[in-house]
Amino acid sequence: MMKKLWCVLLVLMLVFVTLSCGPQGGSPAAGAAAANNLQRIIDSGVLRAGLSLNGPPIGGRDNKGEPYGYDVDFAQKMAETLGVKLEVIDVDGSTRIAALTSGRIDVAFANMTGTLERAKTIDFSIPYLKSGIKMMVRTGTAFKDVEDLNMPSVKIGVGRGTTGEELALKFAPKAEIVYVSDFTDQILLLRQSKVDAVFEDSTLIDFTAGQSNGTLTAPPRMYSSDPICIGLPKGDMEFVRWVDMFVSWMISSGWQAETYEKWWGTPPSANLTVIW
């Protein structure tokens, strides 16, 4: 009787160990999930990249409707490295995370700052660009700083769910927030005097002010130092590792710096760290 009991217990222990341990110390299901996105993209032959095409030189569309810009070049380079075609899917500040969590896109090259709060929902690569939030106003106005905007009569144009929105709410809580869908709308409202100031990444602000023939001004203060990262589906660390390696190689090879200078006309001012 005792012998049979020990045999049963031994069988149960073996079953438990088999179910608990899989490849690389995880469960079989977890091991499959870890390689799922990378292999799925390769097998499908398509990289679905979410891109924000409303703020050159990060991303925009030409007269023929074709996407162009720094993020587009980076997404295209990733697709070429994987040996697949690139499918561009339009996203903005309010839809880029939802597009990832719903599985509508594989990666988000959407001028997105990596933050701890966002990292609760999605994963991030190492930074492939660094920028900071800056303010832009019409030339000749009295507004020189965000604190100057803290009045009920002032209107600030920002995208919902952006770092610029957080800044405006924190330092100018008395001002009226006007939400826009993209950076193009921010500039339009600013030119039409429907808002008094806008906040966006310095990469967009500096480029736009420089192209405005003196009608728009970007005061020099930088309100943050933000890591711009590739957004990735949550929980697939094998895919995160591959993307980190890809970004590292683009930086160490000099390709990232060349691409930056191609679009901004100057070498990148921020140093990026490689981990591979």
TrEMBL record:
Family annotation (InterPro entries): Bact_solute-bind_prot3, Iontro_rcpt_C, SBP_3_CS, Solute-binding_3/MltF_N
Signal peptide span: 1-20
Ranges for domain Solute-binding protein family 3/N-terminal: 46-267
Keywords on record: Signal, Transport
Record's GO cellular component terms: extracellular region; membrane; outer membrane-bounded periplasmic space
SMART domains to which the protein is assigned, alphabetical: PBPb, PBPe
Superkingdom: Bacteria
Chain ranges of the Ionotropic glutamate receptor C-terminal domain: 46-266
GO biological process, one term: amino acid transport
GO terms of molecular function: ligand-gated monoatomic ion channel activity
Pfam families: SBP_bac_3 (PF00497)
Family: Belongs to the bacterial solute-binding protein 3 family.
The protein's name: Transporter substrate-binding domain-containing protein
